[in-house]
Amino acid sequence: MSKGVTIFLVDDDAEDRRVFKDALEEVTSTVQLLSAYDGEHALELMNDRKFSNPDIIFMDLNMPRMNGMELLAELRQRRNLTDVPIIVFSTSAMLTFIQQCMQLGADDYLIKPESFAMLVSGIRQKLEKHTSAA
């Protein structure tokens, strides 16, 4: 497991952010988790050097002010993020949403599971696939 991996989580639900953090701690202790509460907040934070170069981004779709699809399109236009894996992390399992996210530049899609154990497993799989953190 390598050190220094930074994950940026964008989700408007504070409980989902907390559960994601808890699940991530079950997977690995070698990552730094940064978070934003919606798309506009994420863009504001990305102007800060601390947030500007994450190794992987997990983002919700259904958020106020700027939704996940709008954020995804905006992030894919940023030169410094073209190679950063973006994982959509949403309750929506609709194939049309998943396809639309992939067309906008998402690298993967993780449906928010019902159980904590399934979330741990899902995060582990995505990190193994897209980083060297798990």
From TrEMBL:
Residues 6-127 form the Response regulatory domain. The modification 4-aspartylphosphate is found at residue 60. PANTHER family: RESPONSE REGULATOR RCP1, RESPONSE REGULATOR RCP1-RELATED. It holds the Pfam family Response_reg. InterPro entries: CheY-like_superfamily, Sig_transdc_resp-reg_receiver, TCS_response_regulator. It comes from Chitinophaga rupis. It comes from the Bacteria. Keywords: Phosphoprotein. This is Response regulator receiver domain-containing protein. SMART domains: REC. PROSITE patterns: RESPONSE_REGULATORY (PS50110). One of its GO terms (biological process) is phosphorelay signal transduction system.
